[in-house]
Amino acid sequence: MIRRAIVALSMLVASPAIAREQVVEATGVAPLSGDPAQARWRAIGDALRQAIAAGGMDMRAATLIDRNVIRSDAMWATAQARVTGYRLTDEWREAGLMKVSISATIAPIDAPSCGADPLPPVHLGEMRLDVDPALDPAAADPLVAQFRYALRRAFGADPSDATLGPAAVPLSVATRSWDRYSVLAYGNAPGSGVYVRPYVRLTGRAVSGPGLVKGRRMDALLGLELLDAARGTLLGRAERDGDWTLASRGWDYLPADYRPARRATSPDVRGMIGRLIEDARELVRCRPVAIRIAGRQGDDLLLGGGSDSGLKVGDLLRVGGPTVDASESLDWPMAQVVSLGDSTARARLFDPASRGNAGHVATRMR
After folding, report:
1. 353 and 222 in one domain?
2. I want to staple 304 with a disulfide (CB 3.0 to 4.6 A). Which of 44, 127, 149, 191 is the partner?
3. Which domain holds residue 133?
């Protein structure tokens, strides 16, 4: 009988993370061979990595030992800060190396970035309805129609165009096989911005009060689910609820104490929908700007979003997530936006060996 003993060892080391935005000085180096401008660009990228490391990081190591033989040994680093901007302060050459000094502004990686940037493209998806079959359609349909009309008007679609259907489901969000087939077949899925998935839940119940006064009540929940169209991550949800009293034998009743009323009672529907949309806009304003990479040409990344997604020339982008393999070297792939269109952009990698192929996601760091 062969017995195997497998031991897995892991270790986590955390360095203090910054609590607020601050300015740090960092120095970067790169081999001086060929084009000096390229060497300077590589050295700036190295200095940016040093600035991120100065903001704190978590190191995690794992070793797998099988029968006293090390089968695998890996280490990962998770950044706790991001560079929101930098300024080149000095550069010099020394012993075949290009060296630069930068003054970089770093912020906690999870700090919200709420600014006055224009809203990104908002793609309004199909509305999900959950309506109690016992409810009279004459009571439910006007509310659903008013909600749909307000959403189309708020997020840039023509409310009067009946032929305009919901936006295609982003590939990162698609879970149903038909949605994924449609995206792959037609290629019309958004690659940047925010995908909004509205939902309505309407329930009805009987109510009664003193003197056997009876009526019906409709409880409504209106909500918006906001997802990052590039990464498929949930940005947040916004919800508002209200209740209506429905007519019974020619009478309408207040929902609080069910006293007879001369006319129907309902919440301020327009105000409720308006507050819901404003809650959603606030979530969108504070979202991380993530753009799906459409392709690559040499050191340049071709991005699937441009100024309409909130990008500007000079913006720093992180390619991939904050966790990287640190077994051999510490490298957070980064790029800087060098040219910009309305819906496309180019970003240049600081290190050409970094990952950054079609399908990856680049996240703005400011």
Report:
1. no
2. 191
3. 122-285
Domain end point (choices 257, 285, 313)? 285
So what's the pLDDT on residue 44?
A: 92
CB 202 within 8 A of CB 220: yes
pTM above 0.70, yes or no: no
CATH of the domain at 261: 3.40.50
Last residue of a domain, one of 255, 285, 315: 285
Residue 268's pLDDT is what? 72
Residues 271 and 318 in one domain: no
Is 1 among the domain residues? no
248/141 same-domain check: yes
